[in-house]
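Weekly structure sync, notes
Attendees: PL (lead), two postdocs, one rotation student
Agenda item 3: pending single-chain targets
PL asked that the sequence for the first pending target be pasted directly into the notes so everyone works from the same version. It is reproduced below exactly as submitted, 932 residues in total.
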Amino acid sequence: MQIAGTEVWPKTSFGILLVVLLLFTASFAQAPATSPAAAPASSPDFYDPLPQDTGEAGLKLQLRKLQTTGRLMMVVAHPDDEDGGLLTREARGKGVQTLLMTLTRGEGGQNETGNTFSDELGVLRTLELLAADKYYGVEQRFSRVADFGYSKSPEETFQKWGGHDVPLADIVRVIREFCPDVLIARFSGTSRDGHGHHQASSMLTQEAFRAAADPNRFPEQIKEGLQPWQPKKLYIGNVCGFGATTCPDENYTIQLNTGEVDPVLGMSYVQFAVEGLKHQQSQGLGDIKVPSGPRYAFYKLVDSVVPNTKDEKGHEMDLFDGVDTSLPGLTRGVADELNDVPWLLPTLKKISGRDLSDVNSLSDNAVELRDMVERLKESDLDTPLKSPLEWALSEKQDQTEHALNLVLHLGFTAEVAPPQGAGAAPPSRAQALTPVSPGQKLMVVGKLHNGSKRYWLTIRSATLISSESWVRRVHSEHVTIAPGEDYYANFAIQVPANAPITRPYWNRNDPARDTVYEVDAKYQTLGLPPSPLHLNVEYEIAGHKGLHSPAPEFLKKKHARELPEGAIGADVRVGFRDDHGVERRIPLAITPAVSLALEPSERVLSVAEGKTSMAQAQAYSNLTGTIGGTLHLAVPNGWRSEPSTLRLSASKRGEKRQSDFTITPANLQEGRAEIRAALDSGRISYTEGYTRVTRDDLGSFYYFQPAVQHVSIVDVKVPKDLKVGYIMGAGDDIPTVLQQIGMNVTLIPAERITTENLTQYGSIVLGVRAYDTQKELVANNKKLLDFVSAGGTLMVQNNNSVGDFNSGHFTPYDAELSRARVSVEEAPVQILAPDDPVFHYPNEISQKDFDGWVQDRGLYFMDKWDDHFKPLLSCHDPNEADQNGGLLVAKYGKGTYIYTGYAFFRQLPAGVPGAIRLFVNLVSAGTAASSH
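Predicted structure, written out during the meeting:
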């Protein structure tokens, strides 16, 4: 089955490839192979296969796939929700074709590796999950809905996701495309799952099990060409609680040991999965480890269309109990139509029943499989019945081609030649032709290495194609490649002016408020859009040393006049040396010739101080030649920008131009405004910027932002003489906002705290998760408390590591951090101490200051505290008790200590006026009493 708009690479005969593969498997005995157990679970380059997917180990894993037609699909809510041990056990241990559908990209979470948030964090977490998927061995899909932060109910989740039919339609779409036999909801769909997204993902999956088979559900998909599909079995997870080692018999149907060691992987399934999970570092999983020994996954069968497969205790042995995953089992979908293809089932049974160690039997299989496929295409079976069969055999063909390439020890690369020419050493990152822009000329070089020690190859063709069909170049060849030799294919091309840009196919205009993406229909549900260029080589196996006479029967058959054949392909990559001198190769990307940004992208403008504002336009050229244009800003009516226009030019690739504009607002009133930049060059107007999202252990992709400055106009007063020190934690933009409204803020690096003279500051603020991430802060906490005792104000924001925070005794008086949170951003807030000075200086705080908050009220509130602490605010989620521990203040010595779990790190960058006023008051608490 093909997704609309994607390219299907050329395919060759499944039957012949299967014969050649099984005939040649013995050749591995002639090639030295590293013990799979000794192979590290990592790749020298992210886009290279794992060691376990190469050589003898790779062939063994691939042969497992050829022995089953089973298909499994798991649905979860966020990256890191997946049961990696189970996925790895099924995909790698059993060869099951496995798909993971993750509804969101995790864009609403926090980031433990930096200050990348929102949609850019979504791109990062997509890359992290795809890195983990390499270990699990699964395909990856996503839905259109966004992670909007923690939710305590599926009702709120569905409301934020535009109704439950939006994600349901996406799950149904993927079921109809992937056609799983077994469907698994990772969660139970009950309050036991905790997060509302978790509950919703299970509820949706359970509904989709039957909905996908109903042509009246989402009929627009049927009109597109998808066919209804009924999975055979539905399981739910989290039936005994996460981490459970035992489970009551009645709670589960199947218990699977993911702690079992796989000799090919060299470790247990769950340990191998954890090697992939470690790539999800933005969620703090970089150091996770799993000890050796049994580890069980419990799942419950809740719906099925196959006869009862449970024993007397209600248990099963395997997820596919009752499902025929043999090659003849492919006919189960046409059981009522076998009269139209009377040869189909007998032929499949005969093929599967032969002794595959016998060469003549293998040759007979090859002929009959090929004939069967051709006869199936010409049969009178209806398309809904015929398509799954053809598609299943095509998938087996892909797997067989890959296995054949492993048997032959083939190596294949497709790369853009360096600017210095083909064969030159990889250039630096700045000099490499990545990304390229429309109009760029490049040379693509394909290299096929025949690593076999026995077999000659004859190259039939080399084809360079684009995912969007803007190029298709074919080199018809008849070149024989001896063992150990290389074949090169060179393609000189020019990227056309209308070549599609390599960018996320999902987009939302206001990430702070929109929770459903608009998507490009061609790629919907994919992890990332396909690489722009792909090179494919088709070859024949021309002969081998020691071929005994007479030749094998399959070379004599009337229907097998052609030589055994195969194909190998690769996405086109670009090589370069990174800043450490390490050679890397990343997929080719096409971006606009100019990246344009307006900095800062978010600006808070004080009504009192906002007579003028600044915006800096930053233009970056991606062209190897000269480009120029006219830069201008679009400002709100009545506003002025100086200068009004500006001429910019760049003469070489990588040049950056910066231009400052002075913005004069008119009639400032609290609200929001937008300033947009554009660079007009010829007939093209460049209006957005892009950055490469990556990490040393990940792949890379580009994140695009419009060249827009969002201006939040806020009526806020700030103390004139207060100097604030800010110690960053995991990363946030609060200091920038405070500086924009006129506060005197200095960033204090955590490693400098031991030598910093804190007496110069009136207040010190600790950033989000500061104790979690800054070990120097933990070691010098007494110095901070001494600062408070001497008369300073210390404001501590939320930390996630509840146990570490509580055991560290960082507060001046006893207080116990909890995981309590208020996830509904509109939850009513009660001011518990209306006479406290923090609600009056320098800004008067009222109930309206809690309007317009985004994503949530707060998280990681205190649930116990000493009487020295005074709670200032109270709020709660629907149907829950009041949470009073979100904002506590205490006098300590001559100073003031404040703990807040309220999500100021989200509110201030979003320009929420009331949150900004309240935060300024809290920072000013040390002077509030005397001033009030």
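Discussion points:
- Residues 326-407 form one domain.
- Confidence is low (pLDDT under 50) at residues 1-39, 355-364, 544-562.
Action: rotation student to compare against the earlier draft before next sync.
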